[in-house]
Specification:
Length: 340
C-alpha cells in the first residue's frame, strides 16, 4: 500500500503495519516519517531497536537470522535497514521476499532508501514490500507547496504570519524543509507566539536556500527571470561548477529546439508535449515554446556556445555573468541576439 507523507500519521493511528518502506531525497520528511513510525511502534510495545546500514558488502543472511531470532526477554523490536542509494541485489531481494512471506510477530521492519526511479519502482523487491506493507515515497516540495508547509507549521506553533512573510521565508529556504523547520523554531524562540511581520522575519532568518540545476532550468522555462537569477546565484555561492549549469541549460534548449521543429512540421501541439517528462513539466515547456520561435531557440543555442567559451577562458566575459545573460534570455527578459 502506498501512502503520501501527509497520510502516514493518520494510517498509524488506525493500524500498525509490519513493514514500512520510506523512500526519497527530502531529508526532513525522511526523518519525520521514520520518527513517526518509531513512535507508533513504541506505543504498540516495540521497545527494542536494531539498525543495519546496507552497502554492497552487506550480508543479507543477517535479515534471515533476525527473522528466526527470538528476543532474550520476549520483547518486540524494530529492525531498521538504512539503504541510502544501495539496492538489495539478488540476495537481498530473496531475503526481503522471504521476510515478507512470513514476517515475525515480534519484529517491525523499517527500511529507508533514497528516491526510487521509475525503473526501480518496478523491481520485484519493491513490489513485494509495497504489497506486504506500507510504502511512503517522498518528493521535494515546489515553491507553492513549501509556502503551504511553512504556513501550516507556523500555525501549529502559534505563529501568525501574513502571506508576504510566508512567501519570503519560502523563497529563502526553498528546497530545504529542515532549514524551514529550524528557521520557524528560531522565530518562535526570538519572538514567541503571536504575529510575525516581514521585518522580524528578515532580521531572524538566514538564506538557507538549496537549489539544483533542474530548479534553475524550470524557473527559466516558466519565465521567472528573477527567481532563475536568484537560483543561479545560490548555485554560484554553493560552489557549483559552471560547466554543469551550462549542461542543464543547453540540454533543455536543445530539447526545446527539437520540439519546435516537430511543431513546425505539423505535429499537433498535444502530441509534441506528450514526450515531455515528467508530465507536470509540460506546462512550463509550453510557455517557453510560446515565448521563443524556432529561430530564436537556435540563437539561444549559439549563446550556449558563447558561455562555453567563457568557461574555457576563451572569451573576455566571466562564466557566471554569461550564464546570467543566458538565463535572462531563456526566461524571456533578455535579448537573445548574440553579442559581438
Amino acid at each position: 500500500m502506498q501512502l503520501k507523507f501527509e497520510q502516514l500519521a493518520g494510517q498509524l493511528q488506525k493500524s500498525l503495519a509490519k513493514i514500512y518502506l520510506l523512500t526519497g531525497d527530502e531529508p526532513w520528511q525522511m526523518l519525520e516519517a521514520a520518527d513517526t513510525v518509531r513512535a507508533a511502534a513504541k506505543q504498540a510495545g516495540f521497545t527494542e531497536r536494531e539498525t543495519y546500514f546496507v552497502d554492497k558488502s552487506f550480508d543479507w543472511q543477517q535479515l534471515v537470522m533476525q527473522q528466526n531470532h527470538l528476543s532474550l526477554f520476549g520483547s518486540r523490536r524494530i529492525l531498521e535497514l538504512r539503504m541510502g542509494s544501495a539496492r538489495p541485489g539478488k540476495a537481498g531481494s530473496e531475503a526481503l521476499r522471504a521476510f515478507c512471506a512470513a514476517p515475525p510477530e515480534d519484529v517491525l521492519l523499517l527500511i529507508q532508501a533514497s528516491r526510487l526511479e521509475a525503473r526501480e519502482r518496478q523491481a520485484a523487491w519493491v513490489k513485494t514490500l509495497d504489497q506486504s506493507g506500507v510504502m511512503v515515497p517522498m518528493w521535494p516540495l515546489d515553491l507553492r507547496q513549501t509556502q503551504q508547509f511553512i504556513a501550516e507549521r507556523m500555525r501549529s506553533l502559534g505563529l501568525q504570519a501574513d502571506t508576504e512573510s510566508v512567501s519570503l521565508l519560502a523563497e529563502k529556504v526553498e528546497g530545504n524543509l529542515l532549514a524551514a523547520v529550524q528557521e520557524i523554531e528560531k522565530l518562535r524562540l526570538c519572538f514567541g507566539a503571536g504575529a510575525i511581520d516581514s521585518q522580524q522575519l528578515m532580521a531572524a532568518v538566514g538564506d538557507s536556500a538549496r537549489f539544483n540545476v533542474f530548479d534553475l532550468v524550470d524557473a527559466a522555462l516558466a519565465g521567472e527571470c528573477g527567481r532563475s537569477l536568484r537560483i543561479l546565484e545560490g548555485l554560484r555561492q554553493e560552489g557549483a561548477e559552471p560547466v554543469l549549469v551550462l549542461w542543464g541549460l543547453s540540454r533543455e534548449i536543445r530539447q526545446l529546439l527539437a520540439l519546435a521543429e516537430q511543431a513546425a512540421a505539423g505535429t499537433p501541439a498535444q502530441q509534441v508535449l506528450s514526450t515531455v517528462r515528467p508530465a507536470k513539466r509540460q506546462g512550463i515547456v509550453r510557455q517557453a515554446l510560446r515565448r521563443h520561435p524556432r529561430r530564436q531557440i537556435g540563437t539561444l543555442l549559439r549563446r550556449c556556445a558563447q558561455v562555453d567559451r567563457a568557461i574555457k577562458g576563451q572569451a573576455m566575459r566571466q562564466p557566471w555573468e554569461a550564464l546570467a545573460d543566458l538565463c535572462q534570455c531563456l526566461a524571456g527578459s533578455g535579448r537573445p541576439e548574440l553579442s559581438v
